[in-house]
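Lecture notes, unit on protein representations.

Consider one protein chain, 215 amino acids long.
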Amino acid sequence: MKTGSSNKTDTPLKARKRSTINVAKMRKAFTLKPLAVGVAGVFLSACADERQDATIYTSIDDCKQDYPNAIEKCEAAYQTAVEEAQRTSPRFNTEYDCEYEFGPNQCRTVNTNNGSFFMPFMAGFMVSQLLSPNRYYSQPLYTSYSYNSPFRSRWISADGYVFDGDIRKRNYKVRSETFKPKPTVNRTMKRGGFGSSVRAKSSWGSSARKGSWGG
């Protein structure tokens, strides 16, 4: 009799316990984690897709060969790079200081109302989205033939970002921040100043860090 009575009392208790379980809530809890992983994957893919194709040209003719139907855009992209070089290129007090960084015969004299200084020749220009109906990007690039330089035979931007590979590499995948406007340079630097800044920037691991020798 005791055994029978305990079975009768257990059955309603078990039923009450089962009735308190929210099955829908449990299912939702188990589906949240896979969903979160999926969303994270989407964000990672989006970050990877932020990079865009860019090409380095050493002359307008090279650009025109790639874009025979966009000759005017090639010329405009080159002119944009030239103007940016004039505004953002590193400046040096003497030709010797400039050639120490960039190599013999790689610098030119610039005369202004405030005096003269030396800056490196533009070795190439990087272009991205040239055929875009909205906007294309262009910036000057430099290289060095000096044994004193940490960026010898490599492409480098006006603000000291060194691209991977040597100057034979012409096609890159770059982030949009690569084409952000560089600061205007208003002061000169001494021998070794540019190379020191490049080494410091390399140790930061990012070209997006604020601060420059622009002045």
